[in-house]
Amino acid sequence: MNEHKPLVHIVKRTDIRWWKAWIIRLLSVAAALIVCAAVIYAIVKLNPLKVYGSMWNGAFGTKRRSWVTVRDTMMLLCIGIGLAPAFKMRFWNIGAEGQILIGGVATAACMIFLGKLMPTWLLLIVMFAASIAAGAIWGLIPALFKARWNTNETLFTLMMNYVAIQLTSFFVSLWEHPAGSNSVGIINQSGKEGWFPALLGNQYTLNVIIVTILTLGMFIYLRYSKHGYEITIVGESERTARYAGISVKRVIIRTMCLSGAICGVSGFIAVSGASHTISTATAGGRGFTAIIVAWLAKFNAFVMILISLLLVFLEAGAGQIASDYNLNEYASKIIIGIILFFILGSEFFINYRLVFRRKESTR
Amino acid sequence: MEYAVQMKNISKSFGSINANSNVNIDIYKGEILALLGENGSGKTTLMNILSGIYYPDSGQIFVSGKEVSISSPKEAFNHHIGMIHQHFKLVDVFSAVENTVLGIEDEKFDLKAATKRIEDICGRYGFEVNPQQKVYDMSVSQKQTLEIVKALYRGADVLILDEPTAVLTPQETQRLFNVIRSMKADGKSIVIITHKLNEVMEISDRVAVLRKGHYIGEVETKDTDPQKLTDMMVGRAVSLNIRRTDPVNPVKRLEVNNLSVRNSEGVQVLKNISFTAYGGEILGIAGISGCGQKELLESIAGLQKAESGSSIKYYAPDGSVNEMIGLKPAEIMDMGVHLSFVPEDRLGMGLVGSMGMSDNMMLKSYRNSPGPFTDRSPSKKLAETVKEELEVMTPSINTPVRKLSGGNVQKVLVGREISAVPTVLMTAYAVRGLDINTSYTIYNLLAEQKEQGVAVIYVGEDLDVLIELCDRIIVLCGGELNDVVDARTVSKEEIGYKMTYLTGRGSDPREDKQ
User: Fold this and answer.
1) Which residue of chain A has the CA closest to B369?
2) Domain count along chain A
3) How confident is the model over A225-243, as pLDDT tens digits?
4) What CATH number corresponds to the domain at position B442?
5) In whole angstroms, what is the distance from residue A182 CA to residue A129 CA?
6) What SS3 class is residue A282?
7) Is the Cα torsion angle B247, B252, B257, B263 positive or negative in sign?
8) Is there a domain that residue B343 lies in?
9) Which DSSP state fits B126?
10) Is A111 part of any domain?
11) How far is B364 from chain A (nearest CA, A)?
């Protein structure tokens, strides 16, 4: 046989069973843990199993930690759900940060100015509506420009983030409390007006309920509604959409309003259901992290739950090992990086397989 | 004769599909070999293996009697094998000479010397290439010539041409054939991948036939004829006749007047086109690709903005007359104008690649069901019907159509359009990429539509078919309507001539009679 024959060549898979794909993904996580173990041992000479235990501890170690993990997962998931329709339409909405902030500002405004005027249930509804409107407007503006003048939505949504950040700092200094603190402080701390009520004995039940409804709704919307069908077509090819008689502009505008609105709702949840304050850090980069959630899940709302949980778990775990072992944040970030790298890399093995040179083919 | 290349027991599969199974093929020095087969028979895959694009799963390749392994196009060139693909691989903003030297590493970058060598090659084989011309200024035929020169420059002795005539006019085809003959006289081996039988008969010395990935056999061209080759290709006797009836009671359906269109770059692509289409006849549109055919059909479908002064009138079966310019595609559908339109670019426009057959069936009708949700049951049923009647090869009606072969994709599209019961049916390149059998199925479906009184507008590239299938043919040349000819009396050469040279405005023969 010829010695030039390559050792390995890459062949595209045409289709793969779903369970095989999941085995590959699980194997990649296992491989990631093994590599991380080696790295951990090599760098800090710690027992990797103990480090993993400490990661688990950071996310689920106590009841309170578990609930924080759930709360953060719901928050990330909510943003991912908001981004899914935009990205499915191939509209690169990287403006979730701004949409969250502006939804949060609207929520905080309601809490501050309407808190004493109406009962909590009504206030919650008003805040919900206000955050939807604010987020939708923040999504609508780039969509209008895209539909009318074909502006680049990536740059536009990105710049809208900075506008939102500046607006937020403006309102923070306007509503500063106590004076000189350069923060809004906990809003309505005494009367808890506009705070999510504790349902079924837990503070975060309402977060879970709202996000679950949104997740289910988005799954159905994208898969079974006419709107969802149109979004898929526009995302695939605008020419096909026009050929089918779809008004591409209308779909872009409508979908971005929806996307912005749901991101606005995440701002509502962040302010009213979690931190009870507003600052430029309210979004905290989650508007970008959620892009990973939406894409990795291929816009499947249920898969997004898993991915949000994974990301939040890694984040919490990294924080925990940093404090447990006196490591700096970077060491734990390396571990997150390795795990994400393996999970993303597994997609390659799902789409392609390697064919090795066969030894027995010498004749 | 001496072997240039031998391919032995080549197999290659993509997933569960065997594109090639144990194919044996020999290419001799100084011959023109036609590689014949229907679409999806594995011709291109086989040649892609030889030119280093794919790596075979098993099998051996010998070049000049020595076993070699070809794992990249570069290695293929090291063995003096070059391939000219259907889609040209040229950099638009570079000149001919810059494109030619692109990627050659083991040579000094010297454009002057390269220009000199290109001119030598051109002089030797009779090419016409201006080395300084930019690719974006070139016609399709010039680009193809440049691709051949590129391959020769890299020292190719075995040249593979993948369906080279698909984009050429009859005159350009003749020019290409002359060049191929002079390369043969110089001792080069040429492989032409094709499914056009008349060309096989005209140019080749030998024919090798593939069917469904298997090697069927080879014959000397002088010992065979088109019917025999078709039978080898298809595996059973196929009749090569298109049924054409005389139009019965043609009724005016579309009247196009002074239609002018500019594309998005502001270039005028259609100039003052006027013609009439009748229900009960097939109106052919001939022209070199890119001469306004696409824009013409898109204007009628409401997808192109026409210049002011243009008019397209639709004569509905109930007697009402409506102007269609300025209406949106959806409005054209809503007002009862049934334009079924098979776009040129199947996946870019007519179908959604990531959706299955079933979901693609409701692309234009999903609005009709009440409520905010889609009703998928009618499209499921329709998908099953189309799958069965047009013999679409797909694992399931939910398999993304992107994964189907070109021919099957086309069947899905045509099936959907015909099922919409149109009054005007426009098709562009309806059989591009289809095997012979299916092509004839489609021709007969169109003929059937015509007999039912549908006004069929057929944009095609195979002039033989246009002449056999249509009643009248509009010839476009550079965006202008050059002539309207009677398909029953016109010759292929005459149409070819009118596609390339403006002969002054011809009149519509039917218009004269009335």
Assistant:
1) A226
2) 1
3) 999 999 999 999 888 898 8
4) 3.40.50.300
5) 28
6) coil
7) negative
8) no
9) T
10) yes
11) 5
Using one digit for the tens of pLDDT, what is the confidence trace for B118-171?
A: 999 998 888 888 999 999 888 888 899 999 999 999 989 999 998 888 777 778
Residue B135 and residue B42 share a domain: yes
**Residues forming a β-bridge with B217:** B209
Q: Of the candidates B206, B234, B262, which is a domain's last residue?
A: B234
Within-domain flag for B127: yes
- For CA atoms B276, B277, B280, B282, the dihedral sign is positive
Identify which of A80, A85, A72, A82 has the alpha carbon closest to the alpha carbon of residue A291.
A80
Does ipTM top 0.90? no
Neighbours of A138 (CB within 10 A): 31
Instruction: Write out the two tokens for B14.
Output: 């993509």
Which chain B residues are within 8 Å of A15, Cβ to Cβ?
15, 395, 403
Minimal CA–CA distance to B270: which of B283, B260, B280, B282? B260
* B31 and B52, same domain (yes or no): yes
Q: In the predicted model, is pLDDT for residue B505 greater than 60?
A: no
Q: Quick one: tokens of B347?
A: 């996946």
Q: How many domains does chain B have?
A: 3
d(CA A313, CA B61): 54
Determine, yes or no, domain membership for A124.
Answer: yes
Are residues B220 and B159 part of one domain? Answer: yes
Provide the pLDDT confidence category of residue A176 given band limits of 50, 70 and 90. Answer: confident
CA distance A35 to chain B (A): 31
Q: How far apart are CA A171 and CA A280, in angstroms?
A: 10
Domain of A175? 70-308
Burial of B110 (0-12, 13-18, 19+ CB in 10 A): exposed
Q: Are residues B126 and B13 in the same domain?
A: yes
Q: Are B42 and B23 in contact (CB under 8 A)?
A: yes
In the predicted structure, residue A363 carries a pLDDT above the cut 50? no
Selection from A363, A318, A350, A356 nearest residue A336 by Cα: A318
Report yes or no on A65 lying in a domain. Answer: no
On the question of pLDDT at B509 being above 60, the answer is no
Contact B301, B426 (CB under 8 A): yes
- Mean of all residue pLDDT scores within chain B: 86
Domain end position, chosen among B234, B265, B284:
B234
B59 and B142: one domain? yes
Taking contacts as CB-CB distances below 8 angstroms, the residues of chain A near B364 are 244-245
Strand order in the sheet with B268-279: B321-323, B311-315, B251-262, B268-279, B480-486, B472-477, B282-286, B455-459, B424-428, B339-342
Q: Does B238 touch chain A (CB under 8 A)?
A: no
- Which residue type sits at B424? V
**What is the span of the domain harbouring residue B287?**
251-338+421-513
Which residue of A1, A16, A18, A237 to mutate against B (max B Cβ within 10 Å)?
Answer: A237
Instruction: Give the burial class of B94: count Cβ atoms within 10 A of its Cβ; 0-12 exposed, 13-18 middle, 19 or more buried.
Output: middle
